[in-house]
Write a structure and sequence with these properties.
Helix 3 (66-74) packs parallel to helix 4 and helix 4 crosses helix 5 (111-124). Helix 7 links the parallel strand 8 (163-169) and strand 9. The model has no long low-confidence stretch (mean pLDDT 96). By secondary structure, the chain is α/β, with parallel strands linked by helices. The chain is elongated and about 70 Å long. Helices cover 29% and strands 26% of the residues. The strands form 3 sheets. Strands 1, 13, 14, 15, 16, 17, 18, 19, 20 and 21 form a 10-stranded mixed sheet that branches.
C-alpha cells in the first residue's frame, strides 16, 4: 500500500506492532489468572481487530449497545455480551432476533427493567440469559454490592418468565479516578481492582448461601473489567467462586488517560491522530500558536486526569517522545489550538501526530483507520460499528 505521508489528514493511525503487543499482553494475563478474556469492542468497533483478539484466545466479545451486537453478529461473532442495562420493547425485540442464532446476554439492574424484559421474551417464546449488574464502587449503574436486599432482588429475577440469571457483572469505573491522598498510581489501580474483585466474590457467595438458583461455583459467571484495573488484575478464590471473565476494552490502543493513570506507558499507545499544521501565528505578547486540522470532531474534548491539554503532540512519533514545549490548549470543531513555548519548529504544511486523551471516542468519529508498520501503510480498516449507539 502507500506510505504514511500519502494519507489524508486528519486520520487515525494504528501502529501494528504496538497493537499486537497490547493484544498479546492482555491475553497472556487472562490465561495466567485463569479467566476468560471477553474484550469490549466499543473501543475499536472494528471487525478486523475483534477477529485478531479471537485468534489469540479471546472467547466472545463485549459490546455496549444492541446496534454494535448486530454489526458483529452479521460478521460471524456468536457469543456476545451487551454490557448495558437494555431497556425498551424494540431493543429487546432486536435482541430476541439475535438470540435465535446467537448466544447473547444483557444486563438488568432494576426490577422494572427486568419485568419489562421478561414480558418481551415471554411473548417471543424465548428465555434470555441476563447478568445482574453490581455496583462495586463506580456509582454508575448496578445494584449496590452491599445492599441487604440483594438476595431477594436476585430471586425476583429468577422468578420472572423469559429470563435466566446467568451471573453477575460489574464495571469498576472508579479505577479512572486515580490515586487518593499519598497513593502511588500502581497502588490506586491495585486497590480498586482488589476491592471490586473481592466485593463481586462476596456477592456470589451471598447468593449461593441464600440458595439463589444457578449461583453455583463453576456455573455462575462472575464478570468484571476496566482497562486500568485489568492492567494489574490478580484472581482469587472464595468459597469456590473466582472471577470467571474480564472485559477490558481500551487496552488495545491505550491513550493519554491510561498513561496518566499508570496503566500504560507512552510506548504502549498504539493509536494516534495524524494531523497537519494549517496555520502558524505569533500574538502581540510573543506567544506562538500552531493550528492543526484535527479539532474536537476527531480528538474529542474529553480531559484526562492529570493531563495538561487535549492530547499529547509528539516530537518524535517513532520513539513516542512528546514535544515538551507544545500544549494543545483548546479545540474548536475543526482546529486544535497549540501553544508553543520558545517558538515552534513546525511550519505550515508539516504533519504531526497526536496521542488522544480518549481513544474510544476518537474511533467513533471516523469511518476508517489506517494500520501502519513504520512509515508503511499496511491496511485500511473500516470502523464497522461506528455510530451504532442505539
Amino acid at each position: 500500500m502507500s506510505g504514511i505521508d500519502d494519507l489524508p489528514t486528519p486520520c487515525i493511525v494504528i501502529e501494528r506492532r504496538r497493537l499486537e503487543a497490547n493484544l498479546v499482553r492482555m491475553q497472556t494475563r487472562a490465561a495466567a489468572q485463569g479467566v476468560t478474556l471477553r474484550p469490549h469492542t466499543k473501543t475499536h468497533k472494528t471487525v478486523a481487530i475483534a477477529r485478531r483478539q479471537k485468534e489469540l484466545g479471546a472467547r466472545g466479545i463485549t459490546v455496549a449497545k444492541v446496534g454494535e451486537a448486530e454489526v458483529f453478529a452479521k460478521k460471524g461473532f456468536r457469543d456476545i455480551l451487551v454490557a448495558y442495562p437494555v431497556t425498551g420493547k424494540r431493543k429487546h425485540e432486536r435482541i430476541g432476533t439475535l438470540l435465535r442464532e446467537n448466544d447473547v446476554v444483557f444486563c438488568v439492574d432494576t426490577i422494572h427493567g427486568a419485568q419489562q424484559a421478561s414480558a418481551v421474551y415471554e411473548a417471543l417464546g424465548l428465555c434470555a440469559p441476563v447478568f445482574l449488574e453490581i455496583d462495586t464502587g463506580g456509582q454508575r449503574c448496578g445494584q449496590p454490592w452491599d445492599d441487604r436486599n440483594l438476595e431477594s432482588f436476585a430471586r425476583s429475577i429468577v422468578a420472572l418468565k423469559g429470563l435466566h440469571l446467568k451471573g453477575i457483572l460489574t464495571h469498576e469505573g472508579h479505577s479512572y479516578k486515580g490515586p487518593q491522598n499519598a497513593e502511588t498510581k500502581d497502588a490506586a489501580l491495585r486497590r480498586v481492582m482488589r476491592q471490586s474483585r473481592d466485593r463481586m466474590l462476596r456477592v456470589a457467595v451471598r447468593l449461593k448461601e441464600a440458595n439463589v438458583p444457578g449461583a453455583t461455583p463453576g456455573e455462575f459467571t462472575v464478570s468484571m473489567g476496566s482497562t486500568p484495573s485489568m492492567s494489574v488484575f490478580e484472581n482469587r478464590t472464595q468459597s469456590g467462586f473466582s472471577i470467571t471473565e474480564i472485559r477490558p476494552g481500551n487496552y488495545v490502543f491505550h491513550d493519554v488517560t491510561q498513561f496518566c493513570l499508570g496503566a500504560a506507558s507512552l510506548q504502549d499507545c498504539a493509536l494516534s491522530v495524524l494531523t497537519t499544521v494549517v496555520s502558524r501565528h505569533r500574538d502581540k505578547r510573543g506567544t506562538e500558536r500552531l493550528f492543526l486540522d484535527a479539532g474536537s470532531k476527531i480528538l474529542t474534548s474529553d480531559r484526562a486526569l492529570g493531563a495538561d491539554g487535549f492530547g499529547l503532540l509528539l516530537y518524535n512519533p517513532k520513539a513516542m517522545v512528546p514535544d515538551p514545549h507544545a500544549r494543545i490548549i483548546a479545540l474548536s470543531e475543526e482546529h486544535a489550538w497549540v501553544r508553543v513555548r520558545g517558538g515552534a519548529t513546525q511550519s505550515v504544511g508539516d504533519r504531526v501526530r497526536v496521542i488522544p486523551n480518549h481513544a474510544c471516542v476518537v474511533m467513533n468519529t471516523q469511518d476508517e483507520s489506517f494500520l501502519v508498520d513504520g512509515d508503511e501503510v499496511v491496511a485500511c480498516w473500516r470502523v464497522d460499528a461506528r455510530g451504532r449507539v442505539r
